Amino acid sequence: MNIVNRGFVRLFERYMPDPLILAAVLTFAVFIAGMILKGVSPVGMTEAWYGGFFKLHAFAMQMILVLVGGYALARSPAFGWLVDQVAKLATTPGRAIILVTGFTLVACWINWGVGLVAGAVLARELARNVRGVDYRLLIAAAYSSFIAWHGGLSGSATLLMATEGNFLQEAAGGLIPVSETIFSSLNLSLSILVGLTLILTFYLLSRSITEPVGIPQSALPEKTDSVEEDDGLPATRMENSRLLGILTGLLGLAAITVYFLQAGGLDLNAVIFILIFVGMILHGSLAAYLRALKEGVSGATGVVIQFPFYAGIMGMMASSGMSVDLVRYFSEIATAATLPFLTFLSAGLLNILVPSGGGQWAIQGPIAIDAARALGANPAPTIVAFAWGDAWTNLIQPFWALPALAIAGLRAKDIMGFCALALFTTGAMIGVILLVAGAM
């Protein structure tokens, strides 16, 4: 295990570029592939890239709000207290790894924005308090736990298919409620068994490290006051007013309660709304909440610039027909029993080029749903399989690691070797579960 571990870590440290560099390289790779494989002219590929570059602005804003809202929630005093209590339970490197992986899996299942941030914050605290634990491995465990997100409560495809008026509602024969996707026995089994596999993987990795790397001084957070110094001005008192902040938060919770009572489902907008207003309540004053938001925005800069790049890649993949060819190939060789497994594989491959759950579902969803209906299969397991395939290869796609890396003060190459090993173990578990479920 130690030899394999060192080999993967050195491989990624040597050859893994910065995520923005990777996005640029993938852009050129898809550009050239479209000309060679599909015969599209350079002008045509340029037009497709430009056209796609600006197509996901609304969705990008939703993703940023989830990230920033989750970050602000994770930086609240109440959440900080929870992290401190969890951190006290770790007394050995192995226990620290188990705690950070288990905690982040649950947090990401509840909400990916909260999970990404909370996991990195917890990993950083454990690295400060536990002697002999490898900081890189802790952050890798926290980020790898992101695999649980698309099968959880904030999954893009699952929530979208349960949202009235979604673009696949007619093709799917109506709405597909979360009771058939997120809360299905298949998805819950995947969530539990993949989570246990991930915990075991990182525990074994922690046992194989003989020279652990500690936390760098630059990664230690600065303490900030929750309330600004009162200079006696009415404006400052209003900014620091806990009454105003809590009332605003309660108004938001009242609004979302009314929404749910009127048969509103748990969609992406509802998740964002809850994150924002619960965060306000936990911070107390709006000024404290605003400071946490500012920190979160600075951590989202990589997402802001890279999202359009990947939208451009999506545009080229869709316009040239390469993405459709990839998904259609897997769908055409599938049977009703193997469709979920092959959907998982195709989603994993496509996610490397299109690391956006919602954006990827826009490409793959129509073909996957049509294939399920043509084979007489229930589309819900196919949606679940897509969700896990999309989340699976995020373990070697550093796009979504940017917030965690910003908190940790590390580079993508520092953690990707560990994540690649987890990719193999979790992928094997997901594949076995989907094949067994399809055969039943």
From TrEMBL:
PANTHER family named among the record's database cross-references: SHORT-CHAIN FATTY ACID TRANSPORTER-RELATED (PTHR41983)
Keywords of the record: Membrane, Transmembrane, Transmembrane helix
InterPro entries: SCFA_transpt_AtoE
Superkingdom classification of source: Bacteria
GO cellular component labels: plasma membrane
Protein's name according to its UniProt entry: Short-chain fatty acids transporter
Species name: Nitratireductor pacificus pht-3B
Transmembrane portions of the chain: 20-40, 52-74, 94-123, 135-162, 182-205, 243-262, 268-290, 302-321, 333-354, 415-437
Pfam families per record: SCFA_trans
